[in-house]
Design goal:
Radius of gyration: 12 Å
Distance between the termini: 21 Å
Bound molecules: zinc ion
Number of helices: 2
């Protein structure tokens, strides 16, 4: 199960979700873009905005 699917159990419509992913070895933040499956699930749950970290650990905002 992906982290996004887990958090959707607690999310309310209109919520913003933040997704962070860390490399196992260095714990540096890395690409955490939700996959298509999770994105569809978040849209169905009424989530309006997702923030995720890119390869360099910077935040990307995705409006759904
Ligand atoms: Zn996913």
């Amino acid at each position: 199960m992906h982290a996004e699917m887990n958090v959707l159990r607690f999310a309310q419509p209109g919520d913003e979700i933040e997704v962070m992913r860390f490399k196992k070895c260095t714990h540096a933040m890395t690409m955490a873009k939700p996959c298509n499956h999770c994105t569809q699930a978040m849209i169905s749950a009424g989530i309006k905005r997702v923030k995720y970290t890119d390869w360099s650990g910077k935040w990307i905002i995705m409006n759904l």
